[in-house]
Amino acid sequence: MGRASPLLLVLLALGFFFATYNLLTLVIQYKDSSTGLRSGISDPVTGMPANSWKLGKSNLKFHVALTATDAPYSQWQCRIMYYWYKKMKSMPGSDMGKFTRVLHSGKGDHLMDEIPTFVVDPLPEGLDRGYIVLNRPWAFVQWLEKATIEEEYILMAEPDHIFANPLPNLAHGDNPAGFPFFYIKPTEHQKIVRKFYPEEKGPVTDVDPIGNSPVIIKKSLLEEIAPTWMNVSLRMKDDPETDKAFGWVLEMYAYAVASALHGVRHILRKDFMLQPPWDLEVVKRFIIHYTYGCDYNMKGELTYGKIGEWRFDKRSYLSGPPPKNLTLPPPGVPESVVRLVKMVNEATANIPGWDSLNSG
What we know:
This protein has 360 residues and is an alpha/beta fold.
């Protein structure tokens, strides 16, 4: 793999900065009212469709699928994710089946022999208009059409996911399971949502506050939803008002709307995932999503958007992997952050050729 040009790295860094700033602003505004989200998980099921208890499970195993690019930034995250998948797959309580990295770069890369991979095409040049995650629904459409998938269910995952505990199948029959994101608020964007989810389809409350990941869903349902998800994503991106309002979470709204258009409601599981540094404990949650930067001073205090004396941020490693044996956080940092760094360190210490294969 050739090294990325300095200009490309600068553009990527700027893009990640603005995405992180927008999400960080949302989190800081929300943190005072979100103690229920970050503390305890005594009531993990926040929404259960009325008749889901009647629906059986014909095949509990689910196929783990994550979409990815061939950029070094994506590759090192995929390697860590796959390491922990292999460790958790055979543990008691796991319903994990096989694993596929759906690579939407149109060509193979040097991880093909390490990680089970299915290569699909990216969107035609320029169609994503710099919003690379628009390739995700198109990747799923292609994979579902062309691949042989033995499991009846699919987990849609992302490279920056780490399995912290063995993951069971949280879906119930035709009701998928998803994670409720506090910043996905269809009811607060009714005017925009109605452009894509007309009144005759039902109330806006039928649009779940989720993205496509993490979601465990029946393969047959995803085959129906994925083309709609792709088309809604492109339509949203083409609408200036929608694009401005939804920004970097546009594709997440598109999946939520597409699901509602097909009459699919999700079981909302707060224990599906945690997001350091805002979620403080791992306990029995299943996936660590390390999308946010973790910045602390040496007293163990979070510095809220300012680069800390100690930090872990995946965006620090755009052109290559983090080094082995990262320094652990100072005393006082939440258990979720400590666990994240320890899990990254374990993976990098045990993945063969960690430094050489990800050098660019």
